[in-house]
Design brief:
The protein has 448 residues and is of the alpha/beta class. The protein is built from twelve helices and 21 strands.
């Protein structure tokens, strides 16, 4: 009995309408001192208020459960993307109710304004849809759904607590992977900023002989087949397949820098997943290596259907470290794991030319055996600072320093190219598009 009373007391809240009505009654009692003709009117008004209050309590509490609510979430959330969340609410009372819904979203979002207001007719079901954008990988815990219900009288509200607690993992960005897949198959990647690459020459992998049509390369005419058929026939070729594509993700302290809520590591991880997806669509093999002061995960290149999910599972818990990358260990790992010439995409960041020069001997040794593509980042804050007009001497100083660092980044790219190492200097936001563009260009040029 005591437990039932406590539940009743804890979940009952007096509404603003009750306090307004109570204030009116107090005003009547005060006026009675000056206007005796009011008589028993204040007492009657207060008694009517108490009766209405009792009726309101009765209609809201006569059912054990006058409301149903549940939260529908994806099995996993996509990092850096807008993820849809849905709350389903049903009114089982025999009258219309007003409802205030508070959803206890994971603490990582730091949201205190997830309030929703509904008006439901008897037996009506409504859906609340909103979106959440996580900026860190890991486990996110949803809490209660708390609903505050008011009857048409509106003097009190009854709280319902729906224990819809759920832990949802946040994986590297995967929402757009289906769109990349569709675009890759239909050859309309330009809609996502991915360029159409003009093919140079042809691969050595023969496909079929077909009739010549206008626009075919006359250099591919098969004269023997033409003589047999009596009409022009041409050879067709396909891209070379089953090439190894390895993404090497640097987890050192240089990758902790944040941009728009995501760290450089998260941008690199999202781009690695997208590149692996596109590579497997092109029937290449995708692999992964992560490193910091030690080698982290090593996923040998495969093109089986479960490979992408395996890569995402590995990247799910990867975090940045506080030490510099051990490039010597990376070189020895690549030599022992990758047995044939492959495309090695190294996601890292250099903040100074001296940092690049320390790693250059190892990069040149890797490039000796594989096609090495080094991806590093522009500092968008420095770029915006360099474009801002200087207002004083201090502003001129900051602008000059920013331009110096920007120039150094361009020098780094030229230094890499001078030693036969491909490079991409990109903003974090354009990383995925730029890396897929480069991969498709290398495929078109038959460098892999």
């Amino acid at each position: 009995m005591k437990k039932i009373f406590n539940q009743f007391y804890v979940n009952l809240f007096l509404a603003d309408r009750f306090f307004l009505a109570l204030g009116f009654c107090v005003l009547l009692f005060l006026l009675k001192f000056f206007f005796s003709w009011l008589g028993d009117l204040p007492i009657i008004a207060f008694g009517v208020l108490m009766v209405i209050l009792a009726v309101d309590v009765f209609v809201l509490y006569r059912l054990n459960s006058g409301l149903e609510a549940k939260r529908n979430t994806p099995k996993r959330l996509s990092n850096g993307d807008e993820n849809p969340i849905q709350i389903e609410v049903q009114n089982t009372y025999g009258f219309s109710v007003g409802i205030r819904i508070i959803d206890e979203v994971p603490h990582q979002f730091q949201l205190r304004d997830t309030n929703f207001y509904l008006h439901l007719k008897p037996s009506e079901i409504k859906f609340i849809n909103y979106k959440l954008r996580p900026t860190k990988r890991g486990e996110y815990s949803f809490g209660f759904i708390r609903a505050y219900v008011k009857s048409p009288l509106g003097l009190i509200s009854r709280r319902y607590n729906f224990d819809n607690a759920k832990v949802v993992p946040v994986f590297p960005s995967f929402i757009n992977l289906g769109q990349y897949e569709l675009m890759a198959i239909s050859h309309h990647l330009t809609e996502f900023g991915i360029k159409k690459i003009r093919k140079v020459g042809q691969s050595s992998e023969f496909d079929q002989i077909k009739n010549y049509v206008g626009g075919d390369d006359i250099r591919t005419i098969n004269w023997k087949a033409t003589a047999r058929k009596g009409s022009l026939m041409v050879n067709t070729y396909t891209d070379e397949k089953s090439q190894n594509i390895y993404c090497v993700v640097d987890k050192s302290r240089t990758m902790r820098m944040p941009f728009e809520g995501l760290s450089l590591l998260d941008y690199a991880i999202n781009a690695s997943v997208a590149l692996a997806k596109v590579a497997m669509l092109k029937e290449d093999k995708a692999g992964l290596i992560t490193l910091s002061e030690t080698i982290g995960a090593v996923v040998p290149a495969e093109k089986k259907s479960t490979q992408l999910n395996h890569i995402m599972q590995v990247l799910y818990k990867e975090k940045t470290r506080y030490l510099e990358s051990n490039m010597e260990m990376l070189y020895s790992t690549i030599r022992s794991v990758i047995k044939q010439r492959s495309l090695v995409v190294f996601f890292t960041n250099f903040e100074s030319l001296s940092a690049l020069q320390r790693q250059m001997p190892y990069l040149k040794r890797i490039a000796k055996y594989h096609l090495l593509l080094v991806v590093f980042f522009e500092n968008t804050e420095l770029k915006s600072l360099s474009l801002t007009p200087a207002q004083d001497i201090e502003g001129i100083y900051y602008k000059t320093i920013a331009e110096k660092f920007i120039y150094e980044k361009k020098v780094m790219a030229k230094e890499l190219n001078k030693h036969g190492i491909l490079s991409i200097l990109t903003t974090p936001q354009n990383l995925t598009i730029n890396i897929i563009n480069q991969y498709l260009a290398l495929k078109a040029q038959h460098k892999i």
